[in-house]
Amino acid sequence: MNKGDLINTVADAAGISKADATTAVDTVFNSIEKSLKSGDKAAFVGFGTFSTSVRQAREGRNPATGATIQIPEKTVVKFKAGKALTESVN
């Protein structure tokens, strides 16, 4: 499923236009993004939790040349599936 499929599903299930469904889906995604940017978690009981973690700077190697390079620190997004979601796919 991609974003377009999700918009179509929301529009059909809620009986709203695709434009309204697009606004709703974009609002949800933007809200999750805003929460993560501010350092908070986005937790949805039964579905899962989005959080961030800092990946420390480290040394790496260029596979083509073998040269050592510095990989900078960065913030990464994590998702941990909730119990209900995990059980529903198994």
CATH topology annotation of the largest domain: HU Protein, Chain A
The structural domain count equals 2
Tally of strands: 5
Helix content percent band: 40-55%
State the CATH class of the largest domain: Few Secondary Structures
Percent strand equals 25-35%
Uncertain runs with pLDDT below 50, 5 residues or more?
none
Radius of gyration: 19 Å
What features would you highlight for this structure?
alpha+beta; 90 residues; HU Protein, Chain A; elongated; three-stranded antiparallel beta sheet; two-stranded antiparallel sheet
Can you walk me through this structure?
The protein is of the alpha+beta class and 90 residues long. It has 2 domains: 1-40; 41-90, IHF-like DNA-binding proteins (HU Protein, Chain A). The chain contains 3 helices and 5 strands, in the order ααβββββα. It has helices spanning 3-14, 18-37, 83-89, and strands at 42-44, 48-55, 58-61, 68-71, 74-81. The protein has a 3-stranded antiparallel beta sheet with strand order 1-2-5. A two-stranded antiparallel sheet has the order 3-4. A hairpin with a 6-residue loop joins strand 3 and strand 4. The longest helix has 20 residues, at 18-37. It is elongated and about 55 Å long.
SSE order and pairing:
Elements lengths: L2 H12 L3 H20 L4 E3 L3 E8 L2 E4 L6 E4 L2 E8 L1 H7 L1
Helix pairs in contact: 1-2
How would you sum up this structure in a few lines?
The chain is α+β, with helices and mostly antiparallel strands and 90 residues long.
